[in-house]
Amino acid sequence: MTKAPKILIIEDDPHVADLVEIHLKDLGYELERANEGGSGLQRALQRDYDLIILDLMLPGLDGLTVCKRLRAENALVPILMLTAKAEEFDKVLGLELGADDYLTKPFGIRELMARVKALLRRREAEQDTANKRAAPEELAFDDVVIHLGKRKVTLAGHNVELTAKEFDLLALFASHPGRAYSRSALLDLVWGHQFEGYEHTVNSHINRLRGKIEKDPAQPKYIQTVWGVGYRFAETEESAT
């Protein structure tokens, strides 16, 4: 990035927020803070950030609600969720709503900085790829059209509302029609290696995608099951039949 990455910290515990801000400023990042979910959401929607560090338990709107609303507004900014809860339910729910990574409190500063750097590198790579596109790309499969540049999907001319992860999953499939992916490979490519062991999250996203783009989800035309392997997206000639 040509300028210092801008990071928003949404955290109501001043000790945690101070700790995060001090160490990330040492890396040259530009930091802003909000101590309440509603004000944090407003800032996140009004300004352009490279990363949001979001606490799960917040006064006003909780972190999961903030995450959900950001993704509903198609905000693509990476979200690192902080949680004091270690239960699998919270981690999976954060995944489902579009968080890119999470840290369980108490966390080490080195681990925090490593996660932040990884998410910023990923965002930079995605922006570089987008900047290299001469024009917004489209992938068309019969009546399903995926507008990669606009992150938009239409079915028979009508918009299909997808979450950020649902779109990422569909775009990956459609960019490589015919290629079979295991659940663990999809989890790594779409969510990241830190979510190893949550393959059931892939299944739930596949089921929702089928419900949104398939005429008969029980007999999918586009997203097909490869028994003993995982899933594949139908090739153009297959989807046209």
Number of domains: 2
Can you name the CATH architecture of the largest domain?
Answer: 3-Layer(aba) Sandwich
How is the main sheet built? Answer: 5 strands, parallel
Q: What are the segments in which pLDDT stays under 50 over at least 5 consecutive residues?
A: none
Helix content: 40-55%
User: Helix/strand/pairing class, anyone?
Assistant: alpha/beta
The N- and C-terminal alpha carbons lie at a distance of 45 Å
Q: Helix-strand pattern, N to C? A: EHEHEHEHEHEEEEHEHHEEH
Q: In total, how many beta strands? A: 12
Strand content: 15-25%
Q: How are the strands of the largest sheet arranged?
A: 2-1-3-4-5
Shape summary: elongated
Q: Could you characterize the architecture of this molecule?
A:
- With 241 residues, the protein is of the alpha/beta class.
- It has 2 domains: 6-131, Response regulator (Rossmann fold, 3-Layer(aba) Sandwich), CATH 3.40.50; 138-239, Arc Repressor Mutant, subunit A.
- 44% of the residues lie in helices and 21% in strands.
- It contains 9 helices and 12 strands.
- The protein has helices at 14-25, 37-46, 63-72, 88-97, 109-132, 164-175, 183-191, 199-213, 236-239; strands spanning 6-10, 30-34, 51-55, 79-83, 101-104, 138-141, 144-147, 152-155, 158-160, 180-182, 223-226, 230-233.
- The strands form 3 sheets. A 5-stranded parallel sheet has the order 2-1-3-4-5, sandwiched between helices. A 4-stranded antiparallel sheet has the order 6-7-8-9, with helices on one face.
- α2 runs parallel beside α3, α6 (164-175) packs across α8 and α7 (183-191) packs across α8.
- The radius of gyration is 19 Å and the shape is elongated.
- The chain starts with 5 loop residues before the first strand and ends with a helix.
